[in-house]
Design the sequence.
């Protein structure tokens, strides 16, 4: 039984008034709120056993190192990696993708090669590849998104060929909510010798993710969207691929041996973790994974499909609401981008804020997609484990009031 | 929510003053706010006495950016170019009459930015340097 009221007890921040109205937080797609267990795990480290990791020959450092490495193991199991050595801690999804672009990309992408993306990528999974392509004389090709927000897989079949060295796609669009067919993409990418990099920022927090079953080569995601703190992200990579990659940042902790002439790299995963990492943030992420596991990711997904179904039904009752992305709630996530007549999304967001409702408005770091959708911006309500159907009622009622206000 | 978007904002949004383009402007400038996709264009017709005889704005965007542009045109029509340069951020906020957050501030001041760029003939005019601190 998925008990949202009980879950909300773990998120004291949700119990407050904003502009004199009870807070309705519908921006988890940008960043999620944090349960007490995460905050307490981080507090406990700072209050009772904090020290730097991997260095000290003393109790506190050993305990912190254990907690840090234990968090890595939790994350590895959460995505079903073969080994904890395949999990690299970064700052966020963006850094994870840049790590691959700067190391694997520079070593493996050359003139005439193709990097295949979708039209609905977040800038984080577009700009690093554009930069790399410009540097190497490679080209970018885009898998089109059809009118309903689905990837055009017939076009994918036409675009995939021997020149493609990397397919880099979102697991779930942060605007359209579309869930991409990763298994099929992985098989087709591997058939031409390309690798599959997945931007899991939106999906990993919201649905079960199994890197082995999906045969993903790289998976990037962020802690702060999955109940964890900001400043901690993850790059998963298949071990054999990571072993062959040169380091990203160099310096302390990522070396085995340094002489005046040069250095030998540390083993995985530390080869990619130069300098003091986000120690307490990693421990917080470990606690977030525990929390999600206690709910069960299949249950989380089920809850969000129910919410999205309800949101479609409820929001479409408001005159002028247009929802973007797949109409089938089982083929998408709970990030619902919409417009309200010709009212600018920033006006919608400002007026919702007056009602205590937090949503995002803008291009959601997907300007090319908005160009394709022929709108400068959209409003986006995004749901999570603590979202109630009554929150969606409040949203729909307020949208109706905004429409009336503008109609005058 | 009615008290936030005051009637004057909605009035200017629904019935913008001086909207359109001038056929032979003496000054013209355009700017867009990539964050919200707002585009704003201002044409001025300034006579030999440096008086703004006619002003038009054109563009698309949120109610705040469109209403503030409409209000701004009313403020500067008939004024000298020198007087128009004196219009400040505070004047716009006072005309809007609302307490605005930092993100929406950019919407509110887009027209002023375009006006200053046009009036000063600078394409790289940015918001008041005083905002830097």
Sequence:
């Amino acid at each position: 039984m998925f008990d949202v009221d009980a879950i909300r007890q773990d998120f004291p921040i949700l119990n407050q008034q904003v502009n004199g109205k009870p807070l309705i937080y519908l921006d988890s797609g940008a960043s999620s709120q944090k349960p007490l267990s995460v905050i307490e795990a981080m507090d406990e480290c700072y209050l009772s056993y904090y020290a730097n990791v991997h260095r000290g020959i003393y109790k506190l450092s050993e305990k912190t190192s254990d907690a840090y490495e234990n968090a890595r193991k939790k994350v590895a199991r959460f995505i079903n990696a073969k080994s904890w050595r395949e999990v690299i801690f970064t700052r966020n999804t963006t850094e994870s993708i840049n790590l691959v672009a700067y190391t694997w990309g520079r070593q493996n992408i050359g003139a005439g090669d193709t990097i295949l993306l979708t039209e609905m990528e977040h800038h984080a999974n577009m700009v690093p590849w554009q930069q790399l392509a410009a540097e190497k004389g490679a080209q970018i090709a885009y898998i089109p998104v059809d009118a309903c927000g689905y990837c055009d897989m017939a076009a994918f079949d036409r675009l995939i060929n021997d020149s493609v060295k990397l397919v880099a796609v979102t697991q779930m669009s942060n605007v359209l909510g579309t869930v991409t067919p990763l298994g099929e993409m992985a098989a087709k990418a591997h058939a031409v010798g390309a690798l599959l990099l997945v931007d899991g920022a939106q999906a990993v927090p919201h649905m079960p993710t199994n890197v082995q079953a999906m045969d993903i080569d790289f998976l990037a995601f962020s802690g702060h969207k999955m109940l964890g703190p900001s400043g901690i992200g993850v790059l998963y990579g298949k071990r054999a691929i990571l072993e062959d990659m040169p380091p990203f940042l160099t310096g302390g902790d990522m070396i085995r041996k340094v002489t005046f002439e040069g250095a030998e790299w540390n083993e995985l995963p530390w080869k990619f973790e130069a300098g003091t990492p986000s120690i307490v943030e990693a421990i917080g992420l470990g606690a977030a994974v525990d929390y999600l596991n206690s709910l069960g990711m299949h249950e989380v997904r089920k809850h969000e499909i129910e919410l999205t179904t309800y949101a479609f039904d409820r929001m479409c009752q408001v005159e002028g609401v247009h929802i973007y992305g797949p109409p089938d709630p089982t083929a998408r996530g709970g990030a619902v981008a919409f417009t309200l007549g010709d009212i600018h999304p920033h006006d919608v967001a400002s007026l919702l804020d007056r009602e205590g409702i937090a949503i995002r408005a803008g291009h959601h770091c997907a300007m090319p997609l908005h160009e394709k959708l022929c709108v400068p911006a959209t409003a986006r309500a995004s749901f999570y484990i603590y979202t109630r159907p009554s929150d969606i009622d409040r949203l729909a009622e307020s949208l109706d009031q905004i429409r009336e206000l503008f109609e005058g | 929510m009615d008290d936030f978007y005051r009637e004057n904002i909605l009035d200017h949004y629904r019935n913008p003053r001086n909207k359109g383009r001038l056929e032979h402007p003496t000054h013209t400038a355009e700017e867009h706010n990539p964050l919200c996709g707002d585009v704003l264009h201002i044409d001025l017709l300034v006579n030999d006495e440096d008086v703004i005889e006619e002003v038009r704005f054109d563009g698309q965007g949120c109610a705040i950016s469109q209403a503030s542009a409409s209000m701004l045109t009313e403020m500067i029509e008939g004024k000298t170019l020198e007087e128009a340069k004196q219009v400040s951020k505070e004047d716009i906020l006072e005309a809007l009459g609302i307490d605005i957050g930092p993100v929406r501030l950019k919407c509110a001041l887009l027209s002023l930015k375009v006006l200053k760029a046009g009036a000063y003939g600078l394409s790289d005019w940015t918001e008041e340097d005083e905002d830097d601190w």
In short: Chain A has two domains: 39-293, 296-407. DSSP finds 14 helices and 17 strands in chain A.
